[in-house]
Amino acid sequence: MIHCFALGLVWLTAAASGAAAFNTPVILVPGDGGNQLWANLNGANNHWYCERNTDKPVMAWLDLINLAYPAVHCLAYKLEMKFDPNTGRSRDNDGVSIVVPGFGETETVEWLSDVKIEQTGYYNKLVDHLVNKLGYRRGVDIVGAPFDFRRAPNEMSEYFVQLGALIERSYAANGNKPVVIVGHSLGCKVILHFLHSRSQAWKDKYVKDFVAAAGPFGGSASSVLASVSGYNLGLGFIRPLWFRDAQRSWPSTYYLYPSGLVFEESLAIVETKQRKYTLAEEDIRDLYQDIGYPHGYRHFKALGNLTDQTLPPGVRTHCVFGHGLKTAHQFRWTNGRQFPDQQPDIVYSDGDGTVNIRSLDVCVNWSGKQAQPVASVPVAGAEHVKLLTYSEFIDVVERAASGSD
Ligand SMILES: *[C@@H]1O[C@H](CO)[C@@H](O)[C@H](O)[C@H]1NC(C)=O
Ligand SMILES: *[C@@H]1O[C@H](CO)[C@@H](O)[C@H](O)[C@H]1NC(C)=O
């Protein structure tokens, strides 16, 4: 009897300390290219080399073998979108159906590929750190919210419902603790859009912090290059033209267009022998006419101002971003380069190598515009994607998660 009682007491004590030991849930939202995408093929009408049909989803982004010629054409075909003028929406390419695997888990945002090497790691360092140091459990209190990063928030309503439900579920499963949302790159702007759509009461209840890593809140000049000539993210073995059709077709490319309010509308973003194109609407219209892709202007009109970056998120925010690296700012085809099929001469400004500083530090302006604090954490020399491996970034998440900030 005494024995049973003692056992019961031990059990009760363990349960009580277990309850106190819930971690603050961490929700990981990736950026452009920051999670795996798989594809089902059903009669795809693509390059002679590529498969036409599959009996199960095959890895598209990022199957390393698919980055080599000629397989790279198969990958570009799978990722290209078609615009349907009847619905005003973008759809998968003919015979392709893209699947986003791993929602609510971490695997597909930790690694971009099933080949786990340094270059394919993404949120893996952060997740490992929280698991090893604070006892986090994958899929329980640290979860991923991958999405189809080709799309912009105007075509993501289903995702926003899922994301809201994931946050509420994580809150309830972890002792009613409000969550920390971590975003990277495009994911930061997507989170901002999501938070704008939620009531202040909902945010107060469910969201403790927003950690925005390398958020291009004012857009990025490199998205202009991606849609005009193709952009290979600096990977020398990839020809920019191979991916241009895909990049041009992605709504997210235009969602990340440099905002005239942040970059100055009079900025000559593109210059050819014939003329200059600024960020003013009429110039952008002409630009896409002149390169033979008038559709680009329609996307720009629909998506350029979709998320108001001057409106704060309404939750406590930490903006972590790199600076001090050469970042493309203006593009010139004045020096004998063929427009738009050859890569231009590039005029650089400060930034993280991909996103310009004036866009990264837009969130600094939220300070004082909302009741909750906004902290800015600039990290000298941290490249856009590598930032996710920097201790400065991991520390910010750890402090927010452990409540020691
Ligand atoms: C966004 O808003 C600004 C300011 O109102 C305007 O000048 C610009 O043309 C708009 N951009 C788009 C893509 O509609
Ligand atoms: C930030 O705020 C300052 C001062 O109000 C303003 O001059 C500047 O244009 C703002 N920057 C952005 C990117 O909104």
Automatic annotation (TrEMBL):
Q: Which organism is it from?
A: Macrostomum lignano
What's the domain of life for this entry? Answer: Eukaryota
Residues crossing the lipid bilayer are none
Which key words tag this protein in UniProt? Signal
Where does the signal sequence lie? 1-21
Alphabetical list of Pfam families matching this protein:
LCAT
Molecular function terms in GO for this entry?
O-acyltransferase activity
Which protein, by its recorded name, is this?
A: Uncharacterized protein
One GO biological-process annotation of the entry reads: lipid metabolic process
Q: Which InterPro entries does the entry link to?
A: AB_hydrolase_fold (IPR029058), LACT/PDAT_acylTrfase (IPR003386)
